[in-house]
Amino acid sequence: MEDYKNEFARKIGKIRSKKLNSRVDLTAMVSVSFLLIIFFMVTTELAKPQIMEYDIPSNRGCGPNLGCIKPDENRTLTILLGENDKIVVYSGLLAFPLEVPKEIKYGKDGIRKELLNKNKTVLEYSAKIGRPKRGVTVIIKPGEKCNYKNLVDILDEMQITDISSYAIINDFTPDEAKLLATN
């Protein structure tokens, strides 16, 4: 039997275990990890809340009077949006308007021209009272029967005329509702 074992060992030779390559290629994992890092950096940057600055009048309202916190009606323009592409515009307070409320149309000869003229007037007024570069503040009030397209058109006009201070308010006074219905 021992001859058999020796003969078998001679034929086969020494049996050795094969050594496998212990090196792991991490190139793909590094690429994926960099992509994940970039993805999470971009998503956290986009997830930050976008806020609009709100300018609270602290000793800046009421025109040339210091210490007053009421809004300066010389700088405000209110736009009422109604049904059938109806726009009514007035300056100041409705009880004591600086200009008579008037109905105008959309487009470059209508609302755009009105916004540019009012902004120019307000910039001149602001320069006189010592606060240059403070343009018009527009209050947009869409009515119940106003369609979404009209609101988007007014926002486009704000962008075109470069008016950065505007607000959309859904609070109609009875006088404003009457004004929008009658004009």
Can you tell me about this structure?
- With 183 residues, this protein is α/β, with parallel strands linked by helices.
- 39% of the residues lie in helices and 16% in strands.
- The chain has a 5-stranded mixed sheet, with helices on both faces.
- The protein starts with a helix and ends with a helix.
Please give the structural blueprint.
Elements: H1 2-12, H2 27-46, E1 76-81, E2 87-92, E3 97-104, H3 111-128, E4 137-142, H4 148-160, E5 166-168, H5 174-182
Parallel strand pairs: 1-4, 4-5
Antiparallel strand pairs: 1-2, 2-3
Order of helices and strands: HHEEEHEHEH
| Low-confidence sequence ranges | 57-61
Beta-strand portion reads 15-25%
Taken from the alpha-carbon principal axes, the silhouette is: elongated
Total strands: the figure is: 5
Give me the number of helical elements. Answer: 5
Mean pLDDT: 78
Numbering strands along the chain, what is their spatial order in the largest sheet?
A: 3-2-1-4-5
Tell me the major beta sheet: 5 strands, mixed
Tell me the structural class: alpha/beta
Radius of gyration: 36 Å
Kindly state the percentage of residues in helix: 25-40%
Distance between the termini: 120 Å
Task: Kindly list the characteristics that best describe this protein.
183 residues; alpha/beta; 5-stranded mixed sheet; 5 strands; 39% helix
